[in-house]
Design goal:
The complex is a heterodimer.
Chain A lengths: L1 E5 L7 H13 L2 E7 L2 E6 L5 E7 L7 H10 L3 E6 L2 E7 L13 H32 L8 H34 L4
Antiparallel strand pairs in A: 1-3, 2-3, 4-6, 5-6
Chain B lengths: L1 H6 L4 H9 L6 H11 L8 H13 L3 E6 L7 E5 L1 H25 L4
Helix pairs in contact in B: 2-4
Classes of the chains: A alpha+beta, B mainly alpha.
Chain lengths: ~180, ~110
């Protein structure tokens, strides 16, 4: 039996997303698919699963090899959405550290990849807000109502985008402050 | 040589990955070998290993030399000549750290 849950987490709320997915596993729902704002689960035996996320952007190593390394290390690839990779594995008592990254270098590198991706995708938004909108005068507008809506949407997206950059940069700085490597 | 100093100090993970690659190994082989060498103390997480591999590849400290016979998706890597120079530089640096530490703290090694 499949179960779909509509839910959305921001990229800086990875901990909450992890918690949600792990609670679902304890209730007997294993994640099988992730869509934008939508999680699809399959019913099975309740299990203590550990979920982890990775973000890949521009990479020389092929995806097949990437997934193989994770799989060999005991992670099952669950889903992929917009550069985000979801992995899970069953919890066991022997393993103390069940995370994808176990030094600060690699932990902060993930946030760096994410920030780089955000800055690239954010460019059109900032272009609209800073250059296109100020240049638009009343006379140039052909479809005022559409333009108004468009402007509102772009402004909301830009706000969210800025928030994401700030929050993720903050997570990144927190790791940088750690004394261990 | 100046080039080498740019990469130093290596993280513990990167140091052990380079060290493991004095023989050709694939990703999981590296994890296993490092675990053995350190009697279980250093367990490379998959993402940490993967990140270090791509950085080492970028800087040509290791090269791709082929693939596993059993599974083509497992690529085999090996250390390069400049990787060896870097590793030797690190060994000397670490030796200095240990002997300084031992002397100042009055510990015998």
């Amino acid at each position: 039996m499949k179960k779909t849950v509509r839910k959305m987490f921001f990229a800086w709320n990875g901990d909450k997303e992890k918690e949600f997915l792990e609670e679902m596993a304890l209730k007997g729902y294993r994640l099988v698919k992730v869509k934008f704002g939508k999680y699809v689960f399959e019913e099975e035996q309740p299990k203590k699963l550990i979920y982890q996320f990775d973000f890949r952007s521009f990479d020389k190593i092929s995806e097949a090899e990437y997934l193989q390394i994770y799989e060999d290390a005991g992670w099952s690839f669950v889903a992929r959405i917009a550069g985000w990779y979801y992995f899970s594995r069953e919890w066991n008592q022997e393993e103390i550290d069940l995370s994808l990254f176990n030094n600060n270098r690699s932990r902060s590198a993930m946030y760096k990849r994410l920030l780089f991706f955000l800055l690239l995708t954010g460019f059109p938004l900032y272009y609209q807000v800073l250059l296109f909108f100020p240049a638009m005068t009343e006379a140039k507008i052909e479809l005022p109502r559409f333009y108004f809506l468009f402007r509102i949407i772009v402004l909301i997206l830009t706000g969210l985008h800025l928030l994401a950059v700030v929050r993720i940069f903050y997570l990144y700085l927190n790791i940088k402050r750690d004394i261990s490597e | 040589m100046n080039n080498i100093k740019r990469f130093s100090p290596l993280t513990e993970a990167t140091y052990y990955i380079l060290l493991a690659l004095v023989e050709p190994l694939h990703g999981y082989g590296i994890i296993k070998k490092v675990e053995e060498m350190t009697t279980g103390r250093v367990r490379l997480a998959a993402g940490t290993l993967y990140g270090a591999l791509s950085t080492l590849l970028d800087h040509k400290q290791i090269i791709l030399i082929g693939e596993d016979k059993g599974n083509k998706r497992r690529k085999l890597y090996q250390i390069t000549e400049s990787g060896r120079v870097l590793l030797n530089y690190e060994i000397e640096r670490l030796q200095e750290m240990v002997s300084n530490g031992a002397r100042e703290m009055g510990v015998s090694i």
